[in-house]
Every structure is written in C-alpha cells, then in structure tokens.
Amino acid sequence: MELIPPKKQTVWRWPAVINFSLGGMGAGLYLWGLLWSWFQGELPAPFAFKVGGPLLVALGLLSLTHEAGRPLRGYNLWRHVRRSWMSREAVAAGIFMPLAVFDWLFPNPLVQGLAGLAALFFMVAQGFIPYRGRAVTAWYVPHVPVMFVTSGPMTGFGLVTLLAAAGGFAVPAWLWWAGVLFVLVNAGVWLHYLQRPDEEFQRAVAALRQPAAMLWVMGVGHALPFVLLVVAGATGASAGPGRLLALVAGLALLVAGTLQKAYLILEAGYLRAITFGPVRPPRRRSHASAG
C-alpha cells in the first residue's frame, strides 16, 4: 500500500542543471584540445581550448552559489572528500582549472596529463553526484554516471565544431569521427536508460518519454547533429556549406547535453514513494527446534 506517493525533489533546480551542463562542456573541450595537441601538433586556438574549458567549469560552479544560500561556506566541500562526490567534484575542479591555465601559459606534458586526469575525474564525479541520490528513483540507476561521462565529450565536441566553424580551421579527421562516435554512444545510453522495465522508474521518467522530449533530445539533439556531422565530415567542414553544417551541429549538441541534464534533474527528479506492506505474524517455533 502506498502511504506517500512520489513527489518531485525541490532542492536541485536550474543552477544544478547549469553546473552539470557547463562543467561537462568545459572538461570535454579541454580533453579534445589535449588529444589534438598530443597527436596532431599545435592547437589552432590554444586560448579557447585551454582557458575556455576551465572558464566554463568555473561558471558552472559559480551558478551553484545562487542555490547554496551561503556561498562563503563553500570551503566545507573540501572537508568531506572521503564520503562526498560533491567534495570530489570541487577538488577535481580545483586541480583542473589552475593546471589548465598553467598549461596555456607554459605548455608541459606532465601538467597536461594531470589536468586531463582531473578533467576526466571531474566528469565522473558529476555523474556520481545524482547517482548517489538513492531517494530519487530515476537517478539511482547505473546509466546516470555513464550518461554524464559521455555527455561531456559530446558537448565539448560541439564547442570544437563551433570553434572550427568560427575560426575557419580544419578539425583532424580522426578527432572529427571520434566526436561523431560520442554522439552515437550518448544517444544509445539515453535510449537504454529510458527502457528500464521497473514500474516506479517508468513513472518517474514518463515526461522524458513524451514525444516533445524525445523530439528535442533525440531528434534535435542527436539525430540532427549526427547527420550534419557526417555530411560535413565527408565534404569538408572548414569552408563553404560544410562550415555552416558544423555550426548548426555544434549548437544542436550543446542543446542535447543541456536538455538531458534539465530533463533528468527537473522532470525526472521524483523521490521514491513510501509504501506499507502487509504485516506478517512471526513464525512459531516448533517444539523440536525450541529444544
């Protein structure tokens, strides 16, 4: 018997969505730039890749101060690293941001490697923050951390295509198709996530399965950019029509990542119902067992 029906959580709102969206974009952008510099040579826009990433992460974390109420007590996050994924997110960001900026000023392979690891762990930590919310049906699902870890590179690649379209430079073919692959992987994770058979879970994600939500997330956010990226990659994305296709695809990928976080936090954030089952009388012990 259901005593208290599921109800939406009200603690996390748009500031959390902004943090998760900008954080993934920023970390993903830096990682793509890191791979580019390691395997292709000098970056065409080092400031955008190396400083733009930590700047987006900082803006995302800054948005949380509006929701936290007492931003000056944010230092407490650093005191609970052993048990809190929020603290681990803060520590990862605190390592990533200065190292990424230092990498821009004084490029160094060791600094780049440490900054890249911190960026990757930052995305993992962001994914585990909602996942550890066991009271929320749609969050306590193994798909959620995977969704965050694939969404970051996907949206970061969206920024790469925007930079390439705006700057008129060519993206290496291997990096381009790796970005396209992340679009497919993230789409697959999202669709598989929505297919979980649990009845309470399906009630929680009902809004995510509506035609409008599917159109925006899967249609505009994944299918459209996938087609545009394939065409632009085959025809050349640094000039002519391919440049316009890359621009639209990049914007669509940013929409996809943001909408995923928004739907997950704002629409699917239902606290578990409180139920009451039938009380069973205690089993009577037989004389043999009692002896």
Give a brief rundown of this model:
The protein has 291 residues and is mostly helical.
What would your notes on this structure say?
Mean pLDDT is 87; it is low at 286-291. Helix 3 (52-68) packs antiparallel against helix 4. This protein has one domain (2-278): Up-down Bundle (Formate dehydrogenase/DMSO reductase fold), CATH 1.20.1630.10. By secondary structure, it is mainly alpha-helical. It has 11 helices and 4 strands. A two-stranded antiparallel ribbon has the order 1-4. Strands 2-3 form a two-stranded antiparallel ribbon.
Q: Class in CATH?
A: Mainly Alpha
Shape, please? globular
- Mean of all residue-level pLDDT scores: 87
Q: Remind me, CATH topology?
A: Formate dehydrogenase/DMSO reductase fold
Query: What's the total helix number?
Result: 11
Strand order of the largest sheet: 1-4
Helix content: 55-70%
CATH architecture: Up-down Bundle
Structural class: mainly alpha
Order of helices and strands: EEHHHHHHHHHHEEH
Number of strands: 4
**Span between N and C termini?**
39 Å
Number of separate domains: 1
Beta-strand content estimate: under 5%
CATH level-4 homologous superfamily: Formate dehydrogenase/DMSO reductase domain
Tell me the major beta sheet.
2 strands, antiparallel
